[in-house]
Input
Amino acid sequence: MNITKDLKKLVSKEEDINLKNKKTDILDSLDLTYSLQKEEYKYTPLLKNVEKKFDLLKENKDQISQKSYEEVAKFVNSKFYLISVDGYFKSELSNIPPKVKIKKYSELEREEKDTFENMYQKHDDSKSDFFSSLNSIIHEDCLTISVDSNTVLKEHITIININENYDVNNYRKMIFCDKGSEISIFERFINLKSDENFSSSVTEIYQAENSKLNYYSTQDFKENYHYNSINVFQKRDSVSNFFTVSFSGSIVRNNLNICLHDKSCYTNMYGFYAMSDKSLIDNHTSVDHVDENSLSNEHYKGIMGGRSNGVFNGKIFVRKKAQKTNAFQSNNNIILSDKSKVNTKPQLEIWADDVKCSHGCTVGQMDDDAIFYLMSRGISRKDSISLLLSAFSSEIIEKITDEKMKSLFTELIKKQLEKFNDE
Amino acid sequence: MLKIKNLHASVEDTKILKGLNLEVKSGEVHAIMGPNGSGKSTLASVIAGREDYDVTDGEINFQGTDLGELGPEERAREGIFLAFQYPVEIPGVSTTNFMKTAVNQIRESKGEKPLDAVAFLKLMKEKMKLVNIRQDLLSRSINDGFSGGEKKRNEIFQMAMLNPKLSILDETDSGLDIDALKIVSNGVNALKSKENATVVVTHYQRLLDYIVPDFVHVLMDGKIVKSGDKNLALELEEKGYDWIKPGN
Output
């Protein structure tokens, strides 16, 4: 790997001793991480593409954004929003909620630092996914979000990550949810740069006892490459709900890794993707049930049109101690064109003996009987198909309890499904 | 109203209808009976425009229009309705939403304005009574988890909503208990008028006690081999189909 030498140089320049140690660790296992690529990216040639097209190690500068808030306002649907440009958090463009502490890692006071110093690169996948290793070593600064114990934020916070000046952007953040806190986040990646680019994002989330988190994420990309890794570490009685929605992008890879580290943790992982043209969407998820009585419920659905490709890989681990685990997983796909493809794979490893686990994948076509039924009542073919497709997506959308987010996603999906009308 | 001449239809090279003739006039009720596999359901599907069937010869004329080139939705807009033998379950789409889309697309095809929410609700309430169907059933996904009787009632409800000129009931009675059968038949009878016509495809004479036909036809081996009045149905019930040989 040519890249290793340059990465070593970068690490040697790191001034923060704690970070330097962690980055050195990542460097040391880089060969092994790299070798895992072959299996973990079997159908997703992300590395091949981005290595060829971009200089992955080029440094970005923290520039004053030329974009005004007005330009990104249409992507914000909440009172509070956090804006990052080219990987740098911009507090001057953001509207920070009063009850939550939001800072760059480099600007944290000594007493604030302990929590995040401990968290930093602890539970992420930088030793199992090469892109996370790269992000860990290269990213410039890290956004930190800290929610104090028992703080409840009713309205969600929108996080907007904008690719503006560079063709490679690395985003990094940590979210600390203290005991009994409740918070919702809607993260969007947008592009204000017209050239092809690559963005990578790694998020580490720590959920203390009894905390609750809703996390919605989507990208508004066309012909871009995107890597997103979200890593969650949950303590006792905590609940997390994830909604990962993807519509376009040359290659989009979403990693969602959840560690249910304690007793009675809950997580719901929902995903929806509707792809057209030549785009590729890859959702890789993993849930690690470490202790008793926890529940994970995963449902991803996708509609593939044009010459698009879909990949789903869902890992479930149930450790020996994790008796009475409930773990459910399913992935359903509709293929609209004979040029599109889906590779889907459930992967369960269960060491406990008193558990309830299920998994299932389906890849199918539109149901001709249903189309005929609707048409026989006077509904055009086009509208029959879009009724059925939106019904297919509604199973995921119905799970969103926040009305604002539900209507936003309903609207986005409707717009995307209209693209399939000509197929 | 409906004139079928020398209709030949096949599915995947298997010939099912082999020269079928049938004429239905306004105000009439026709029953089509016949043994399993004689082509009854195929006939119903072919009239409704199901694309799985190839019409290889003959024609179906509906009120002066050759249906040959029309898709199922265009036939529905012309006034043809098929009550399905096996109504399809469609999770995620409510019957209410489904009917609203259907009613308004049919209106639009005639150059009429779509019904607003109030007018639609009023129409729905009125038609719900006909088949004794509850509102909450209609708010649920189409036929999803419905009992056999609920599904058939939903078919007749849809028929009432769309007010077709020609209704084809494909084995609407099969699997219904006597109470459900009465409700369904009452609904069909209430919708009957001098301007519309009904074709009842059935296996059993029992239904014809409730929906009384003007004509009974026996379909065997892809052709209508015998026609008569309602007494023919009674005779079939008693003797079975063996005494009628195709070609007689």
Chain B touches chain A through 32 residues (CB under 8 Å). Chain B has a mean pLDDT of 93. The longest strand of chain B covers residues 14-24. Chain B is about 35% helix and 30% strand.
